[in-house]
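Shipment paperwork, digital attachment
Item: protein structure file
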Amino acid sequence: MATKLAATKKPAFEIANLLDDAADAIRDRSKQAYGAGKMSLDEYMDARAQELELRSELQVIVATNLSAALQQATEAGENIEQAIVDAKTRIETIRSVKNGLKIVAALVTLAAALASGEVKSIVKAGKAVADLT
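Attachment content:
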């Protein structure tokens, strides 16, 4: 049935509406014909069976379409969840790099202080390195 639906290139809701309209038409015409005496009880029951068969097909189409929509929504949700996990990983990497750069900057400052020989600068730079590590 799915291949037949795909071949028509019509949205499932449009097909479902057409089936519903056809079932309504069968019901209305059979009621009128039976009420006017133009149709036997057996013919009327056959018409009602056709109506119910169309409505059954309609339910299958609607259920299939809803199932496909639910599957797409589930996949989209999984993709969003994976994107969030990936983003958190990247953010953590950026934070690690940022902290690493702070440590490198503090070490460069310590090296400069050691090169200058100023005790006060060396102590301050050493404390900054110790705070970061």
